[in-house]
Design brief:
The structure holds 2 protein chains of 2 kinds. By secondary structure, chain A is an alpha/beta fold. Chain A folds into 2 domains: 51 residues, no CATH class; 223 residues, 2-enoyl-CoA Hydratase, Chain A, domain 1, CATH 3.90.226. Helix content of chain A is 37%, strand content 18%. In chain A, a hairpin with a 2-residue loop joins strand 4 and strand 5. In chain A, 51% of the residues are buried. By secondary structure, chain B is of the alpha/beta class. Helix content of chain B is 49%, strand content 16%. Chain B contains 14 helices and 8 strands. In chain B, strands 1, 2, 3, 4, 5, 6, 7 and 8 form an 8-stranded mixed β-sheet that branches. In chain B, helix 3 packs across helix 11, helix 4 crosses helix 13 and helix 6 packs parallel to helix 8. The radius of gyration of chain B is 21 Å and the shape is globular. The chains are: A alpha/beta, B alpha/beta. The complex binds zinc ion (ZN). The site of zinc ion has 8 residues of chain A, from loops.
Amino acid sequence: MNWLTRVRNSLPFQSKRETNDNLWVKCPNCQEMLFAKEYEENQQVCMRCDHHGRIGADERLNQLLDMGYDLLEQPEVKEDPLKFKDSKKYTDRLKQARAKNPHRDAFSVGSGQIEGRDAVVGVQDFGFMGGSMGMAVGTAFCAGAERALTRNCAYVVVTAAGGARMQEGILSLMQMPKATVMTRRLHEAGLPYIVVLTDPTTGGVTASYAMLGDIHIAEPGALIGFAGQRVIQDTIREQLPEGFQRAEYLRKHGMVDMVVHRHELRDTLANLLDFLQGEKAA
Amino acid sequence: MISYLEFEKPVAQLEARIAELRSAAEGDDVDITKELERLEVKSADLLASTYSSLTPWQKTQVARHPSRPHFRDFVEHIFDDFIPLGGDRNYGDDEAILGGFARLDGRRVVLIGHEKGNDTESRIRHNFGMGKPEGYRKAIRLMELAGRFGLPVVTLVDTSGAFPGIEAEERGQAEAIARSTEACLALPTPMVATIVGEGGSGGAVALASAERVLMFEHAVYSVISPEGCASILWRTAEKAPDAAEAMRVTAQHLKKLKVIDRIVKEPVGGAHRDPEAASKTLGKAIGQELDALAKMSSDEIRRMREERFLQIGTN
Ligand SMILES: [Zn+2]
């Protein structure tokens, strides 16, 4: 492995800025070197093995929403409410994450249309501190739901998170009931709430808004679960079954409606919206 | 016989000395009453001062104390006419989460909570208080029942977390927890939750998304166990005391953050030193909360509950 590959591999994800600078990216699954521009044009899906790479919020919003959508401003939240410090200060970790990401936190919301159907799309970015759910994520999730309620349209949420933002302690846990207040409001208003589970969606995010959708769609191969695999192994001391906690496994066990290739995601959402909120002129 | 925690060693030594003196004095003419009295006062002072300044990590130990009262103890000391109800009508009955009808000083309630067990056999039966999907689905069933028949819900939360296992994942642990949280929020009747021991992560919040959340003085409530947090952020579980401190897991911290509404005092030396007294204090507190909520309409209660969670962290 040369230094360049090593540097690339150490990147948590390839953001647009980084891929433009580097001509090649390596598929984390089959290790094939892929021409960055082609990989991007292929929606960060490996041309060789079909592995669905992790993508940033803007890329996802651009893939799903029609051009000209409205990007919601990230709501202001109290920063570092616990004055948390482990080996590093939480505020420093935030600064670092922001330097590498065009957004202020891990949840971004676009309001617009999916192939002409009104929709608000919320996207969680694993690239920002592992997509972890803290006050900023929870509040942005709620703001997206609020916008869907105002526009009287569907809310589509693309999840990706290693779990809760530990640096916000209990306040991150409180985002679970908080987000659930809003999914209930959508439900009561008769508005569709569709969840797209992407790699990885685990912990408190899965155990709240990611599992409360009217429809659950998963991307192929995505890791989806409540408990981490190491925790499970340490608890039960058994071999985990083949494909455990992967999208196809969840499909088999009835936790998601369908596993959909990224190339078909936009069309699938549009079709579902036609059933859920009536056909609107495209 | 009480089992002492590491930080209680000085108290343990004094109490052992007192017991020693007592047995030595039996049948003896020497009057040691004075000396005994002196030592007992000293021991009580030491216990009180130790417990008035517990660190978050020490409180975690107290919250997990093997003799700490659990669900069945509270049922015995606080409630009358408990009628246990079982099963999720889908897969099975999970004894990590118990529930049923009960009376609290005459008030009819639906009672739900985690049970950890108090000896090897019962700990295994109750899976150490780690609920599985069928446990949370039983809780959902009971909450819906409470809502339909106009009964308030009282929950007693005491879990290190929901069970992490293959079958639990296959049966939808995440979905069960999410739906249980949702059932709390949808409840049209009053709901009072108390963190009585450990409030561990999603497995706790699934039974604690109430409009009034109480917490025992030495209970802990957190998004991840201090060990888990330490092994991720410090890369060693040995930093658990630091993680407990940094995450603000104590009732005193959580009250300031408005995550909980009321701290329930424990007997000096922790609830495990006098489970009955601890239970009585808790029963009284829950009763007061229920009475205050009984005056509100369904809409008011639900709005209050929703606002509570929408507001947390904003002030
Ligand atoms: Zn590949």
